Amino acid sequence: MKTVELQNIWSRMEREISELQQSTDAIKEKLINSAAIFTTVLQDGLDHAQQATDLCTTLELGARDLRRMSELKMALLKMARREFGWCENCEEEIPVKRLEVHPTAYLCRSCQHVRERVTAAVAHPCSSYRSPAPPEIWRQSATTLHWHTKEVA
Question: Which of 20, 88, 104, 118 could make an S-S bridge to 71, C-beta 3.0–4.6 Å?
Fold first, then answer.
């Protein structure tokens, strides 16, 4: 990977971290203000429910921003250690175009695809989902996929 490409990705990540920091600071301020209002004003049930919902949404947005900042800081640390841009699974170089779009990527496209298939197969959101195949789990060993049958009680 070229130095210019790394510098562009680095500066984009630093800008995003700065924006996320401003966002989390605003969320902290909002939470402090809402806590003061929340405890001092007596409200009816609907107002209270709406404020509780708003509080939960605000907390989730803050948590999402903090997770993203953590991912970006980890990518910057990898870049400083010269470990950036390599798949953690197969150790192949991650294409620059992928890193430009998704700088926190730690898997190449094919390993990410396998991970998504594993996640979908193991934890399908629909409890009534029935796989056409017997209950099996994907496991990846190096770059080869192996099927392992899961015992069903």
Answer: 104
